[in-house]
Fold:
Amino acid sequence: MRELGVVLRRELLSYFASAIAYVFGGLFLFVLLYVTVDMLEVGRATDTTAFFRVLPWVLLGFVPALTMRLWSEERKLGTLELLMTLPVRRISLVLGKFSAAVCFVTILLVLTLGLPFSLALHGPLDWGPVLAGYLGSILLVCAYTAVGMFFSSLTRDQIIAFLSASVVLLVLGLFGHDSFLIVLRDAGIPRSILEAFGAMSPTTYFRSIGRGVLDTRDILYFVVFCGVFLHGTVLVLERRRTRG
Amino acid sequence: MIEVESLSKSYGSHRALDAISFSVERGEVVGFLGPNGAGKSTTMRILTGFLSATSGTARVLGHDVERDSLAVRQRIGYLPESTPLYSELRVDEMVRLAAELRGVPSSELEQRMFDALSDCSLLDVLGKTIRQLSKGYRQRVGLAQALVHRPDLLILDEPTSGLDPNQIGEVRDLIQRLSERHTVVLSTHTLQEVVASCSRVLILDRGRLVADGSLDEVTRSVPTKAVNVRVSGDFEAVKAALSAASLSGEESSRDGAQAWWRVVRSGPGADPKSAPESARVARALVKGGVDLLELQPESASLEEAFRHLTQGEVVDA
Structure:
């Protein structure tokens, strides 16, 4: 537990120690708020629906960009050898890096709270869906981070890690959109498979949570989803020892 | 401290390590010597748990490196080849991180950090980022992070490669001091390193262990071409005595009536690549009426032994 804390702290500090974090962070907030404000103006909306509709797409590019270096860089610089020969369990390394990335994005999400607060100033705001939306967002960040980190453990090339994670997340994301599934249906893919696609997509559960009704199945989905990719990362690191 | 039994490692079809066995006792300073690609780093990476062996077993402090890797990793300090460090960290941050991850209790953290940093003469660069440091300093940071938890065993992969002569001297002195408290296993492809630091040498060649012993034992095990004798007698008498027994020799130094001669095989059918038997030389000289005062089979230098063992050459001393 202590070792996990040490890894978490070191990783989280490393985000703030490098300029990349500030550039990414600024870019993330700018894109997110710009798109949302734009949508609010057009739709004359008075709630955060637009914000949570844009968020998954922004995260789709942003989280893999943040996680791509987590293992690739350690391998490329050789520090992986240092890390893996420390008396620290692999799972603590994986969970430490994972939770640090989630914490970092969560901090950025907290900064976006300015949006609902300013909406609340201009008229009545229902805080239920707002809070549910943020909970769903954090779970979505967890899922994306787990995928991004898994692909980072597979290669020493950060760009490959970024692209493969983004493509996988894009496909999974599209599975959660009816308009995309309709395209697939018209292409002749059977309904049962399309339903399975929908049930696989994090977006489906993200939206379900965002409606403000907490269903344990939604939470369980994210727990299992993250568990699969985190465990996968541990296996990849372990497997690498036999290949050399 | 270390027991290794028929350890092998293959990368695909390439056999990097071929059934090597050795053991290391507490307090020893053992040098792995071998050309590049001989299997030195592979052996160290298996001992430290970074790689797993294809077959064979290795135990460190009684713990199997594969099944009990965490227990092994708690008791060793490892400096990987080319000293990977987090270059964005300051020296004190790097050593603190290593201390925390190596399980140093918080109550002892400051003391252990101070000890490691002062042992490695790093107190004057604490606040510098590792990126700013010279290679010699980086190497010392690598050593400090490896020993901050006072491990029983230090494993150092090429601790002096890429350093200038002054830095090499500093790091060697440091290793010398460390060897008083830790068992040390280091690898190198330079012979002076072994001579300077090690009490025992293991020579690896193409994945095989070709020599294991003290420097004396290893150099003596290598066949040489000649026997050196100290004799009392005149030049012609020695010459005649030798040629009568199909030997030939040269006087290498003379001090009054006494002289040193270097004796080799000669005559038809003699194999010039092996030294004459000491007994035959002695008999020949005595029979020729020469007083034999001293006789020494020529010993190879470590460099010659190394060349012989890793290339299968006979030493031409």
